[in-house]
Design a protein that fits this description.
This protein is of the alpha+beta class and 279 residues long. It has a single domain, classed as 4-Layer Sandwich (Deoxyribonuclease I, Chain A), CATH 3.60.10. It is built from seven helices and 14 strands. A hairpin with a 4-residue loop joins β6 and β7. α4 runs parallel beside α6. The chain is globular, with a radius of gyration of 17 Å. The model has no long low-confidence stretch (mean pLDDT 97).
């Protein structure tokens, strides 16, 4: 048996984390340093917000200091999508078998396939893939496109799972059940908790994937992965949402040892999520 430690985190700007000087940047940098100390086999980062050219020399130097034994692969938003938007990155141990890295286009609508939202690592015995799911936006202006994304992404994950087990993480921008957010009644039909988005997430589970957190913890309440920055006391009062997940193929769900949110101190927004498996 081999023990693997995987961590996933919506970092909300890698540049701010590595080179920023604001108090929030310092908090973000402290979380990233803590993740490095956890020595994960794979670290997935979403919403990196890098330019189309990717990480700068300064970024790579900072990452090398934090993660000296890791290889890096990234994907940025490119034209015709917005610049400095979305984006994903993997850091994975060089001691692992060299993965096949793919940056798939899944047939998503609008510019979604150009926004750097998916990276997949194929190892000999499994896939590790991450996603930064599009937000439906203020006024749900992108909800129809989001529904098309959900269908395309479900088909993509299912195609991977036909070949070998899948470990899929990321910011899915959907709280699936009422117990996945502190105030379901007042947030019903807000972005991330519409009936359509919840149904779309449910289709992933129907397609043969398991929400590893619920698999381990059952119907526990009050556990969240995101706290709005618009509310200064959201984290203090634990009024959050669980919208970040590690999904795993049904066939390896019993290999999951740990699936939980990680401490990120005073920093609001997303918290890292941890998955430990024995294969």
């Amino acid at each position: 048996m081999t023990h693997y430690t995987f961590i996933s985190w919506n970092i909300d700007s890698l540049n701010a984390a590595l080179t920023g000087t604001s108090p929030r940047s310092e908090l973000t940098r402290a979380v990233l340093a803590n993740l490095a100390q956890k020595n994960p086999d794979i670290l997935a980062l979403q919403e990196t917000k890098l330019s189309a050219a990717g990480p700068t020399g300064a970024h790579l130097t900072a990452l090398e200091l934090l993660f000296p034994e890791y290889a890096i692969t990234w994907r940025s938003s490119v034209e015709p999508a917005r610049k400095g938007y979305a984006g994903t990155m993997y850091l994975y141990k060089k001691a692992l078998p060299e993965p096949i890295v793919t940056t798939p286009e899944i047939g998503a609508p609008s510019t979604m396939d150009f926004e750097g939202r998916i990276i997949t690592l194929e190892f000999p015995d499994f896939f590790v893939t991450q996603v930064y799911t599009p937000n439906s936006g203020d006024g749900l202006k992108r909800l129809t496109e989001r529904q098309a994304w959900d269908r395309a992404y479900k088909n993509y994950l299912a195609s991977l799972s036909e070949k070998k087990p899948v470990f899929a993480s990321g910011d899915f921008n959907a709280a699936y059940q009422e117990i996945d957010l502190a105030n379901p009644a007042s947030n019903h039909m807000n972005p991330g908790f519409t009936d359509e988005e919840r149904a779309g997430f449910g289709k992933l589970l129907e397609a043969g994937f398991v929400d590893s957190f619920r698999y381990i913890h059952g119907d526990v309440e009050g556990k969240y992965s995101w706290f709005s920055q618009r509310s200064r006391l959201a984290k203090v009062n634990n009024t959050g949402w669980r919208i970040d997940y590690w999904l795993v193929s049904e066939g390896v769900a019993d290999k999951v040892m740990t699936s939980e949110m990680m401490d990120s101190g005073e920093r609001q927004d997303h918290v890292p999520i941890l998955l430990e498996v024995e294969l």
